Amino acid sequence: MSDVTADPAPGAAEPPAPDPAVPRPLGVARTPTGDAEVDRTLARLADADHLPAEGHVEVYEDVHGGLREALSALDVRPAPPGPPR
Question: Given phi > 0 = left and psi -120 to 50 = alpha, else beta, which region is 11?
Fold first, then answer.
């Protein structure tokens, strides 16, 4: 194999470098949990993809609060009936 790279064609423009000031999606995949409320809350994370870094805190705090509420709701739900005695 050769370490030599081919020169671009004359007059070919190089792709523009990404602008560091423009937010870029993180591309983090979210696997559905099966709980509609939790899935809606986690879907909010996609909003951070379109915000500058300083805007992420609000999104993360919102998602964290929603997940805490979902976990707290588990404590107040009645337990399923057990087997008859």
Answer: left
Token readout for 6 is 């081919």
What is the Cα–Cα distance from 41 to 57, expressed in whole angstroms?
15
Length of the chain (residues):
85
Q: What is the pLDDT of residues 47-68, one digit of tens each?
A: 888 888 889 999 999 999 999 9
Find the Cα–Cα–Cα–Cα dihedral 74, 71, 36, 80, rounded to 10°: -20
Instruction: Round to whole Å and give the CA distance between 65 and 38.
Output: 11
**C-alpha separations of 75 from 12, 25, 45, 71 in Å:** 63, 35, 25, 7
pTM of the shown model: 0.61
